[in-house]
Amino acid sequence: MATVVRENIGQLHDKLTVKVSKEDYLPSFEKKLKDYSKTANIPGFRKGMVPAGMIKKMYGHSIFTDEILRSVEKELYAWLNKERPEIFGQPLPLASDVQNMDLNNPADYEFGFEIGLKPDYTLADLSQAKLTLHKVEATDAMVDDEISRMQIKGGKMTEPEAVDNEENVLNLVFTESDKEGNEVEGGVSKENSVIMKYFTAAVQKKFMGKKTGEVVTVQLNKAFDDDKLAMFVQDLGFDKDDKEAGKKYFNLAITKIGLVEKRELNEEFFKEIYPAKDIKTLDELKAAIKEEIGNYWMAQSRNQLQDQIYHYLVDETQMNFPAEFLKRWLQTSGEKEKTAEQAEAEFPGFSSQLKWTLISDKLVQDQKLEVSNEELREFMKADIMRYFGTMNLGEDTRWIESYIDRMMKDEKQVDASYRRLITDKLFNWLEGQVKAKEKTVTPEELNAMQHHHHH
After folding, report:
1. Same domain, 109 and 194
2. What are residue 260's phi and psi, to 5 degrees?
3. pTM of the entire structure?
4. Residue 430 maps to which CATH number?
5. 142 half-sphere exposure, CB direction, 13 A CA radius
6. CA 381: distance to chain centroid?
7. Counting beta carbons within 10 angstroms of the beta carbon of residue 313, is it exposed (0 to 12), middle (13 to 18) or buried (19 or more)?
8. Which of 202, 222, 251, 334 is the most buried (most CB within 10 A)?
9. Euclidean distance between CA atoms 257 and 193, whole angstroms
10. Looking at the DSSP assignment, which residues form a beta bridge with residue 117?
11. Are 39 and 183 found together in one domain?
């Protein structure tokens, strides 16, 4: 009779020894041999007439080994189904002596497997979490900037005779020179386009009234303020922190003067921006844009709050892991085997991901969160609509439904959509469990805080 013996070999780390006796595998081994001799195609013998001894000699060893391993596996999984230990992944086989199986001397065999057990733990108390909802106010200045950007994007390019305002776009050839404007032999030469307002006030003055073909000589660090300087120094092929490069002189020859004539703020333009809204006045446009900016930043604020919740749960929930088992599992579970060093290096990231998986699975189960088929379909539909953007999809949208039917048959697609939806539901629930204080911050401050959690 086959048996399974369990013993503890480390923290949350057990060994299972599966013993099989010859009665467990011999009958099926002999039956397999018989079946083989009936079907084997061997030159010189009629089908079904191959002597048993010959079959045993040719195929015996591999059939014998297969049958032993099959009975071990059957026994192992019967035990796991009955005992139901909470384990990570699959049992990992320990080194065994498959080579020493001798079909002429059937014996009892033992095989070892190791299992890693999931830890018991208490979830960190969310009511104790000190969290902050960092809010960005949608300001009038943001709205004006956005409108100006849209006017430029929708505007048309003209070519004025001479440089006449800070919105001019200049196509320039930068040629390295000395202070007096004499070209440096073998120096840098490069074309670039620059908006006039990027230059310092003093250099803008020099350009005013200049026409195509005229040249202005500048010293880079006098022509651009620090924030722009690094960008231009890099564009010219120097290291952006190269202080010496900033001191170099360049002749800037104008090859083209451009100006974008901003779009007029009228109903036709409003309709282009928001085809679905009936916007008649500038105030209505501003209100719509302000709402959009507000929604965008609110979503960013919630993301950042969810990030804090994620880190609080992962950092404050105490959990032990069968580290040795998991490192071995990391080495063998991928498509390509990893070295012990690779597994060691990956383990910290892997274990916090594992921690989050255990926490989120438990919360989803405890709160009975689920995703219906209807929700999956709606989610996929929204995805398709986003993909096609504001294109007019016509009256007949039945094709969308059949497209979704196809997506619902794709296991990967369904799984990815399910994960996104269940994660959203989980974080919506979690947000409701915490009391975050509100604090107003600038867009730059909020952007600097964003690390996205992996979920």
Report:
1. no
2. -90, 125
3. 0.72
4. 1.10.3120
5. 17
6. 22
7. buried
8. 251
9. 10
10. 87
11. no
Which residue's entry shows tokens 């059949």? 402
One-letter amino acid at 349 equals G
The pairing of strands 436-440 and 131-135 is: parallel
Q: How many domains does the chain have?
A: 3
In a domain, 137, yes or no: no
CB neighbours (10 Å) of residue 276?
Answer: 7
**Domain's final residue, options 210, 233, 261:** 261
Q: How far is CA 62 from CA 19, 41, 67, 69, 71, in A?
A: 20, 17, 9, 11, 14
Structural domain boundaries enclosing 254:
156-261
Q: Please tell me the total number of residues recorded for the chain in this structure.
A: 455
**Residues 255 and 285 grouped into a single domain:** no
CB atoms inside a 10 Å sphere around CB 286: 16
- And the tokens for 283? 């105030």
**Are residues 210 and 170 in contact, defined by beta-carbon separation less than 8 angstroms?**
no
In terms of Cα–Cα distance, which of 255, 251, 254 is closest to 176?
A: 251
CA distance 305 to 438: 10
Note whether 207 and 196 are within 8 A (CB).
yes
Q: What one-character DSSP code corresponds to residue 51?
A: -
Spell out the per-residue pLDDT of the chain, length 455, in tens: 889 999 999 999 999 999 999 999 999 999 998 888 888 888 888 877 888 788 888 888 899 999 999 999 999 999 999 999 999 989 999 987 666 788 888 899 999 999 999 999 999 999 999 999 999 999 999 999 999 999 988 899 899 999 999 999 999 999 999 999 999 999 999 999 999 999 999 999 999 999 999 999 999 999 999 888 989 999 999 987 888 999 999 999 999 999 988 999 999 999 998 988 899 999 999 999 999 999 999 999 999 999 999 999 999 999 999 999 999 999 988 889 999 999 999 999 999 999 999 999 999 999 999 999 999 999 999 888 888 765 666 666 788 889 999 999 999 999 999 999 999 999 999 999 999 999 999 999 999 887 655 55
User: Cβ atoms within 10 A of the Cβ of 55, count?
Assistant: 19
Name the residue with tokens 């041999």: 33
Residue 340, C-beta contacts closer than 8 angstroms, at least 6 positions apart: 327, 331
For residue 129, which of 369, 309, 262, 368 has the smallest C-alpha distance?
Answer: 309
